[in-house]
Amino acid sequence: MFNFDIKKKLQDKNGKQFLGRAAVYETPHGHIKTPAFVTVGTKAAVKGVTVEMMKDMNAQVFLANTYHLHIAPGEEVVKAAGGLHAFANWQGPMMTDSGGFQAFSLGAAFGTNVSKIATNDSGYVQEKKNQVSNSMAKVTEDGVEFRSYKDGSKIFFTPEKSMQIQQDLGADMYFAFDECTSPQATAEYQREAMERTHRWAKRSLDEHKRLEKKKTGIINTLTKKVKPPQALFGVVQGGQHLDLRRESAKTLGAMDFDGYGIGGSFTKEDMQRAVGTACAELPEDKPRHMLGIGEPIDFFLGIENGMDLFDCVAPTRMARHGSVHTKLGKVNIKNARFKTDFTPIEESCECYACQNYTKAYICHLLREKEMLGATLASVHNLHFVTKLVDDIRQAILDEEFFDFKKEFVKNYYGDK
Fold first, then answer.
1. Residue 162 and residue 262: Cα distance in Å, rounded?
2. What are 308-319's pLDDT values in tens digits?
3. Is 172 a catalytic residue?
4. How far apart are CA 374 and CA 369, in angstroms?
5. Identified catalytic residue from 168, 172, 298, 311
6. Which regions of 35-103 does DSSP assign to beta strands (E)?
């Protein structure tokens, strides 16, 4: 049911081989042409965007968040609805994460400005315990104790619990439970967390296989169909440390996962090397997913170094604040100069927003906090990044990747 078929490997005009590739990944709910951008719908919905809009922008994959769906509406509700596909009315491939990222976002990063991507001047001075006194997540050997963002009640995720929830949610692909660390964590803590992630990976894989075997032949009472198999991806950790990334990739690569995620923290400067180091050690015949990355240049660097799938909330988060992608870089469409600009966000763009509305109208909506403004800006941004990754794939097939990369970076980033 799951098959990864490499169609073209990346090489330059001199015949030098790179880790990048164009492929097709077969899932129970359709084929994914990779590289591909995965649209994030945290609570089983892309903010302000319908699945019909997603189809119009050629979105291939939809990713939802296990932690948030466990809190509301609860996996039992989603399961009763026939699984995420039926619940969200999305019939294409779906993914869920494990809840591991919340160990970072509600733990070491809670109440701070620290993100999973840092710059080298941010320093690595986090205390070894990797926790702060007001955090809403506490990591232990057995799992992670969360406090609900709704009512503060305690929730405990173990690797086994995460697998059980994700099986009930019913996405085609889901992730092993891992600990996402802060980019400010010490090297000692990065190793500690990585080794714990490896132990959790084994527990996740054992539980996944048990659940898959148990459900064989079970009929979904709503759809009246046999429940399809689900694929489990292991998650490589190790922070910005290349030796840890290599060790993590080798350890997980030797396990029987269906695919692999590259997770955790990076410095912006070291991300390319960390990704390439990990991908070089992972099985070539299985897909690789880069978790939480959505900057245009990072698609090129990730794909060049072996990544197949990307997900990020950035396109819709940017849109809600008025920032939109164009071929010449990001633009804040709320700026006063757009009040009387009656042209589309981008003349050549085929998205619904650009085909039907002007900068002036979207500027007005966003400045007046009308919900439609965020929707139109989100539609444009999602179309932009989805098409960009699709175009990168085509460039690999046409053996024009490096020319395309050079031209895009020149136009989007200028002389940076």
1. 18
2. 999 999 999 999
3. no
4. 8
5. 311
6. 36-40, 61-64, 94-96
Provide CATH code, domain 3-312: 3.20.20.105
Contacts of 53 (CB under 8 A, 6+ apart): 352, 379
How do residues 163-209 score in pLDDT, each as one tens digit? Answer: 999 999 999 999 999 998 888 889 999 999 999 999 999 999 999 99
Residue pointed to by tokens 């009040």: 339
Q: How many CA atoms lie within 13 A of 230 on its CB side?
A: 33
User: Which of 329, 303, 323 has the alpha carbon at shortest distance from 378?
Assistant: 323
* Amino acid at the residue 409: V
**Can you tell me the distance from the alpha carbon of 318 to that of 296, in angstroms, rounded to the nearest whole number?**
13
Catalytic residue among 97, 168, 172, 270: 97
pTM, two decimals, is 0.92
> 139-149: string of b/e by CB count within 10 Å (b at 16+)?
beeebbbbbee
- Catalytic site residue 311? yes
The domains of the chain are located at 3-312, 314-416
